[in-house]
Design brief:
6 helices; two-stranded antiparallel ribbon; 203 residues
């Protein structure tokens, strides 16, 4: 049987159809907004994602080229990415302050190291001069800094500071998983030693 609809019945359906279309448009708009917000958050993220595998990266130390897992203690490696032991006074202070963290971290099963784009010679000289009880490792091409999404993009390309990281302390477990990322707003402030030790104890 073929059924026909009257003009009146068709007109009666229009408000419902319009409402359904409005709801569909609103849902699509909300999804687009969520996607835009997610993309913006990703573009603003600094550092690796916690609970995800740490990027594959290597650095240079006294023993040659090593990965962070090569250096891991029973629980893993605590990597302090810093700007420079050559010209950054805030980094120099942080590295000296971290002297008090090396042994307690080791007791917790973590190996503490520092990483910057400085040359191996610069780092070796600073370590010796300040009698640091932990290793400093060179990332002269900033490959590890880039792999960990830490490069400061506001530095002019080709300048003396090109390749420096946003300072961060990253906990990488012995199996290569990012367990925590500690950062402060601005490059002058660094996570306090007590906070670093508390994080290590909690992981």
């Amino acid at each position: 049987m073929i059924r026909t609809a009257s003009l009146a019945s068709l007109l009666a359906l229009l408000p419902a159809a319009a409402a359904a279309q409005d709801a569909s448009d609103a849902a699509l708009s909300a999804k687009a907004s969520e996607a835009e917000q997610a993309a913006m958050a990703e573009s603003m993220r600094v550092g690796p994602i916690v609970s995800q595998p740490a990027p594959a990266a290597s650095v240079v130390g006294p023993e040659g080229v090593v990965s962070f897992t090569d250096l891991a203690g029973e629980k893993g490696t605590v990597v302090a990415f810093f700007r420079s032991a050559d010209w950054c006074p805030y980094c120099k202070k942080q590295l000296i302050d971290l002297k008090d963290a090396a042994a307690p971290l080791g007791d917790e099963g973590w190996t503490l190291i520092g990483v910057s784009y400085d040359s191996p010679e610069t780092l070796a000289d600073f370590k010796a001069a300040k009698d640091l009880p932990y290793g400093l490792y060179s990332d002269t091409g900033s490959a590890a800094i880039d792999a960990f999404d830490l490069r400061n993009p506001d530095v002019p390309a080709g300048s003396r500071y090109d390749g420096i990281p946003h300072p961060a302390i990253i906990f990488i477990s012995a199996d290569g998983t990012v367990k925590a990322v500690m950062r402060e707003e601005g490059y002058k402030d660094r996570p306090a030693v007590d906070a670093v030790l508390a994080m290590a104890a909690a992981l």
